[in-house]
Every structure is written in structure tokens, then in C-alpha cells.
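Session log. Operator J.P. requested a structure for one protein chain; no other inputs attached. Running the standard single-chain path with C-alpha cell output.
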Amino acid sequence: MIDPSEDLKAMIEAAKTAGAGLERHFAQLAHLTVRSKTGPADMVSIADEEAEATARGVLARSRPSYAFLGEEGGIGGGDDQSQQWIVDPLDGTTNFLFGSPLWGVNVALAREGKVVAGVTYIPVLNELYVAETGKGCWLNGERMRVSNRTALVESVLACGIPFSGKPDHPVFAREMALLSADVAGIRRTGACAVDMAWVAAGRWDAYWERCLNAWDMGPGIILVEEAGGRATGVDGGPLDLHAGHVCVSNGGVHDALIERLNAALEE
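Structure written below.
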């Protein structure tokens, strides 16, 4: 079992408390107030907003000096910009609103722009993933490791699919043309938090997406790395938390996947 720092303890409390509130809303979906953020396919509910406020309150009590970045509330928190909580209170909002259990709470801690601790909580599945630099990746107290497959043809990959209002639809079509015939399967859960955690747990061999935010990928980066995997940009370059794209894998299929993702950019 991981020996959590005080920061990680606060993150676990924030994720579980926010998740409990979300589960209550999930049981009464018909009564939720929902609105569109940027278009019909980009929705937010009062559940998202309440969950972020809950998580933010827990984290602020623990470390009031740390800065904060949340999907719903933006930038705030304390004056210490070198240490920042990064929170997605409900990753997989569309899944949540349509009754799918594949959604979760993301809480990450970044120091000088590098994620040093992460928590992904998937309440309906009762899965709590935690990781901290040098301490491994853990699911409900059990140590997790990435898969050991090295051939794409034996691998199951996960990805994000651009929806209405998102860019890169032609690029995604080329990715599928280059990959689908050479892998064991390609999946989309609709929640980056779930996909990245499942790479860490060895359920998927890799995951990529081209249009993401720091709060989507924050915890998943360290979950995968501490599980023995690899995290880069989709171009194979060093990962930038704020660059908007990510590719994580077990390491064994990483280079072959990146080669095809880069080829998909060539029309």
C-alpha cells in the first residue's frame, strides 16, 4: 500500500468527497440542470460545478497557499504558483449525463509544471487510482503495472474521438485507416480519466488524444509513469501539460504508435 504524503491524502479526500456528491446526482439524473458550454456536444451540469467547489474546498483547507486550476472555475487559489492543484471535477460529463458509469474525478498536483501526484476516482466502479513520484501506482491499495505487450498487432488501444465543435476530424480518420488493421482493437470510453487509468492498470496498451486540457490528462500522466509506462506528446516529443495533446502507453508499443500518429498528419 502506498505511503501517501499529506498532499496526496488531501487529494484522495477531495476526489472521494466530490465523487460521493456526483454519485448522488447520478442517481437522480432527471432532475439535473444542464447547459451547453461551447456547443450542443459540450455540456456542463450543476453536478460538475458542485463537485469542483467541493474538491477545491478540501484542497484549500490543506494547502491554502497552492494555486488552483479547475475546469469549471479556472485559475485561482493561493499565491504559490510553483505548486498548483489541477482538478477536473467530472471527466466524462456526457457519459455521466447519459447514464454511463464511465466517468471520474481527476485531481493532480503539479510542481513547476510537472505532475508529482495524481488521483483518479471512478465512483460507480469503486476504483481509486493514486500515484506519487517514486511511490508507484495503486488501485484500491493494490500495486498496478502497465501491460508487457510489444507488438501493435497484439495490442488494444484507446483514443479520444473528436466530436462536434472539435478540430482534427480528418486527422482522426487517417489515424484509424493507419491503425485499425494492425491492432487487436481500438476503444473509446468517452472519458480520458478512465482511459489513462486503464493504461496504468494494463487494461489498455496505449491511449492518445489530440485535443485535451491539463485537467483531463494531469493525474493520468503520473499514474502511467509510476506504473512503468511512458507519457509523451502525440508527436513523441516531451510531454507538455498545457500543450493540449498526449500519448501514454506501456512503453513497448509507444514508438510504433507514434510513427503512425505522425504519419496521419501527412495528407
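Operator note: The chain has a mean pLDDT of 94.
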